[in-house]
């Protein structure tokens, strides 16, 4: 994935002008809260962009949040917004990096959150690199919250090709290391009123074979 491409996206558009903008990510927060995670649980949001989820995780009391994106501009937007809201971001770890190649600590994270990144992995090599990092970084019994375009979702996003998924296709792609805990279809409404069909899932990592 191209760093320059995503820098241009976030330099040319406001955070609420991109198709994936959400004012409140209540579905992710409900899934995390349902697991009764402690406030110091280690969470990573990959492809975070300028997501308001970070604000909401801080407000919910989580203290160990890692925020990863290719775009430094996007992360600076989030940082400025947190300061403006007077939210304590001293415990947040900021990573400007490619999720496929970033070096992450082994068996470190309790939760891996990805809303609309994995579906940009359209080659087997990209998918394999991404999943290798997930398996490396997630603790055994850790959770992966993964949202992709559904089978009847868009064929492109932000001008780029995407892969669309059913639960069965996603399970096959993830492999036997993951057990499905939750699935739901969602119709996301973009800031300009268009509908996008998403598949929201949560998986438990069984550990390396």
Structure description:
The model has no long low-confidence stretch (mean pLDDT 91). The protein is α/β, with parallel strands linked by helices and 209 residues long. 29% of the residues lie in helices and 30% in strands. The relative contact order is 0.15. The longest helix has 14 residues. It folds into two domains: 57 residues, Rossmann fold; 100 residues, 3-Layer(aba) Sandwich (Rossmann fold). β4, α5 and β5 form a beta-alpha-beta unit. It is built from six helices and nine strands; from the N terminus they run ααβαβαββαβββαββ. Strands 3-2-1-4-5-9-8 form a seven-stranded mixed sheet, with helices on both faces. A two-stranded antiparallel sheet has the order 6-7. This is Methyltransferase type 11 domain-containing protein. Pfam families: Methyltransf_11 (PF08241). It comes from Acinetobacter colistiniresistens.
The total tally of domains equals 2
Reading the helices and strands in chain order gives HHEHEHEEHEEEHEE
Number of strands: 9
Q: What share of the residues lie within helices?
A: 25-40%
InterPro entries: Methyltransf_11, SAM-dependent_MTases_sf
GO molecular function: S-adenosylmethionine-dependent methyltransferase activity
Organism: Acinetobacter colistiniresistens
Protein name: Methyltransferase type 11 domain-containing protein
């Amino acid at each position: 994935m191209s760093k320059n491409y995503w820098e241009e996206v976030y330099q040319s558009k406001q955070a609420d002008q991109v198709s994936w903008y959400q004012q409140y990510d209540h579905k992710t927060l409900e899934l995390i809260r349902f697991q009764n995670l402690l406030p110091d649980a280690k969470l990573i949001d990959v492809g975070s962009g300028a997501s308001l989820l970070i604000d909401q995780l801080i407000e919910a009391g989580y203290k160990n949040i890692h925020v990863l994106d290719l775009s430094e501009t996007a992360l600076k937007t989030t940082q400025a917004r947190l300061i403006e809201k007077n939210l304590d971001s001293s415990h947040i770890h900021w990573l400007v990096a490619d999720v496929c190649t970033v070096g992450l600590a082994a068996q470190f994270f309790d939760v891996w959150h990805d809303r609309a990144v994995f579906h940009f992995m359209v080659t087997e090599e990209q998918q394999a690199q991404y999943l290798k990092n997930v398996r490396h970084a997630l603790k055994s019994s850790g959770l992966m919250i993964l949202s992709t375009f559904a089978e009847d979702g868009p064929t492109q996003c932000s001008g780029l090709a995407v892969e669309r998924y059913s639960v069965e296709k996603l399970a096959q792609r993830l492999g036997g290391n993951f057990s499905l805990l939750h699935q739901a279809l969602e119709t996301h409404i973009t800031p300009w009123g268009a509908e996008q069909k998403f598949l929201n899932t949560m998986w438990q990592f069984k550990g390396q074979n």
